[in-house]
Design a protein that fits this description.
By secondary structure, the chain is of the alpha/beta class. The chain is built from nine helices and 26 strands. The chain folds into three domains: 3-95 and 174-190 and 354-429, FAD/NAD(P)-binding domain; 109-171, no CATH class; 194-351, 3-Layer(bba) Sandwich (FAD/NAD(P)-binding domain), CATH 3.50.50. The longest helix has 26 residues, at 404-429.
C-alpha cells in the first residue's frame, strides 16, 4: 500500500493529510513544532465571515490525530529525501519532548507547579509560558513538552506527575528514522515580515507600535489579555487605533516587491472587531490600495466603512512619540490633505514572507526557490502544485502568499495529485 509524507502541519498540511487518508492512503504528517495547527491557531476570527478560527481548525486537528490512516510526527524535521518519484526514502529527526507520550494525559498539573516563566512564541511576545508547557489549550496531540533549555531542574514537575511521564535530560534524546513514501507534499507555511526592518515605524522602540500578529493575540479571547484591548505602555484602553498597511509588502526598497494577499482583509477584519467590542474607539486604516478580491471581500470592506472605520489613502513616512500618544503624519493622496493623528495604538500590517530556513529546506528536499524566496513550481499556470523534483508537491503559503480558503484548496489539490501518483505506482506494480 502506498504511503505519502506531508511536511508541515498547518491548515494546508492537515487538509492534504485528511484528504489522502480518506482515499485509503497512509499519511505521515510531520510537524517540527510540538503541536499541529500552524499560524491559523493564533488567529481570533477569519474573514470575511468573522467565524472563530479555532472552531474551524480544532475539529480538523483532532480528526487528523485520530484518523487510523494518519501517523502524526510532532517535534520532527525532515533532514533529507533520497530516491525518485514513487520510491522516496524520507529521513527524519525526532527532537526530544522529555515526556513519555504514551503516559501524558495533558492534565497540566506540571505546568501549574512550574516556577519558571519565559517568552511564549505562540503569543507573539505578549504572554509568557512555563518551562514545561502547552503552546495553547487546544494543542494536538494533547501532550506537554519540557523546555530543557530553560528548565532549572527543580524537580517539582517530577513529583507532581502521577503518571511519571516526565523524563530527565539523559532519558530522552534525538532519534533518527526514515519513512518510505510514493509522494511528498510540502506545506511548511510562512513567516511574518520582521517589522524592525522598517525603522521609520519604530517597532520595538515605541511600546505601543505592535505587529498585526501581536494584535491578533491581544484581541483573541484565549490570548494573554483575554481579548481586552490594552496599550502596552500603561495597560489602558486605546481610544484611537491606526493600522498601517503594506509593511513588508509591495516595497522594493527592502526586497519585498510582491503583495502579501491577506493584509488588507485581516486589517479590515480587525478594525471591525474593534468596532464591535468598542464602538467609541476611533479606527483609521492607512493604505496604498485596498485589495478586496475574493468572494464577499468587497462587501466586507463596505461593511467596515458603514461601521465607522476611516480609510485614508496614504502611508506615513515616520512615526514619533508625542507624550502619551504616537504622532502619525500622513498625506491623503486622494485630496492632498495632510492629516495628523495622535494615536494610542499603531498596528503594523506585516506581510507574508518565506520561512527563514526555506533555502536550507529546499536544499534538503532538492527543490528550488523562486525569485521571491518561496518554493518554485514547475509552471505557475499549469503545474503550480508540482515542485521541480517529480513526486514532490507544494501546498499553501510555502509557495506564495494566499488566504485561508485558497490554502485549503491547494492542500486538497496537492492531495489529489499525490493520490494520482500513488495510483500510478500501484498499477505499475500489478
Amino acid at each position: 500500500m502506498s504511503e505519502v509524507v506531508v511536511i508541515g502541519g498547518g491548515i494546508a498540511g492537515i487538509t492534504a493529510a485528511l484528504d489522502l487518508a480518506n482515499h485509503n492512503i497512509h499519511v505521515h504528517l510531520i510537524e517540527r513544532e510540538p503541536t499541529i495547527g500552524g499560524h491559523m491557531a493564533m488567529l481570533d476570527k477569519t474573514f470575511p465571515t468573522n467565524d472563530c478560527s479555532m472552531c474551524i481548525l480544532s475539529p480538523k486537528m483532532v480528526d487528523a490525530a485520530r484518523h487510523p490512516k494518519i501517523s502524526l510526527h510532532t517535534c520532527t524535521e525532515v533532514t533529507r529525501i533520497e530516491g525518485d518519484v514513487g520510491d522516496f526514502t524520507v529521513h527524519v529527526t525526532r527532537h526530544p519532548r522529555y515526556i513519555k507520550e504514551s503516559e501524558c494525559t495533558g492534565c497540566d498539573d506540571c505546568v501549574a507547579i512550574c516556577p519558571v516563566e519565559v517568552y511564549n512564541k505562540f503569543d507573539a511576545g505578549l504572554g509568557v509560558r512555563k518551562a514545561i508547557y502547552k503552546s495553547h489549550p487546544q494543542v494536538v496531540p494533547n501532550i506537554v513538552i519540557r523546555d530543557a533549555e530553560h528548565c532549572i531542574n527543580c524537580g517539582l514537575c517530577y513529583s507532581v506527575c502521577g503518571k511519571k511521564a516526565i523524563l530527565r535530560d539523559h532519558e530522552d534524546g534525538e532519534e533518527q528514522a526514515f519513512i518510505k513514501a510514493s509522494a511528498v507534499i510540502v506545506s511548511t507555511g510562512y513567516e511574518v515580515f520582521d517589522a524592525t526592518k522598517k525603522p521609520a515605524y519604530h517597532y520595538l522602540r515605541i511600546p505601543d507600535v505592535i505587529s498585526s500578529i501581536e494584535f491578533e493575540r491581544m484581541i483573541n479571547a484565549s490570548g494573554p489579555t483575554s481579548g481586552a484591548l490594552k496599550k502596552r505602555s500603561d495597560g489602558t484602553k486605546p481610544k484611537k487605533i491606526v493600522f498601517i498597511q503594506c509593511v513588508g509588502s509591495r516595497d522594493c526598497a527592502i526586497g519585498s516587491p510582491s503583495c502579501s494577499a491577506v493584509c488588507c482583509m485581516y486589517a479590515i477584519k480587525n478594525a471591525l472587531l474593534i468596532k464591535e467590542k468598542s464602538p467609541d474607539t476611533e479606527v483609521t486604516v492607512l493604505y496604498m490600495d485596498i485589495r478586496a478580491y475574493g468572494k464577499g471581500y468587497e462587501e466586507f470592506y463596505e461593511r467596515a466603512i458603514r461601521a465607522g472605520v476611516r480609510f485614508v489613502r496614504g502611508l506615513p513616512g515616520d512615526l514619533y512619540q508625542n507624550n502619551a500618544h504616537i504622532r502619525v503624519h500622513v498625506e491623503n493622496t486622494e485630496n492632498q490633505e495632510i492629516i495628523k493623528i495622535d494615536a494610542d495604538l499603531v498596528v503594523l500590517s506585516v506581510g507574508i514572507r518565506p520561512q527563514t530556513d526555506a533555502a536550507e529546506i529546499a536544499k534538503r528536499l532538492n527543490i528550488s526557490l523562486d525569485d521571491t524566496g518561496f518554493y518554485a513550481s514547475v509552471d505557475q499556470k499549469s503545474e503550480h502544485i508540482s515542485a521541480i523534483r517529480p513526486g514532490i508537491f507544494l501546498a499553501g503559503t510555502c509557495r506564495e502568499p494566499m488566504d485561508i480558503p485558497d490554502t485549503v484548496a491547494e492542500g486538497g489539490a496537492a492531495a489529489m495529485r499525490a493520490v494520482i501518483r500513488c495510483m500510478k505506482g500501484e498499477h505499475a506494480a500489478l
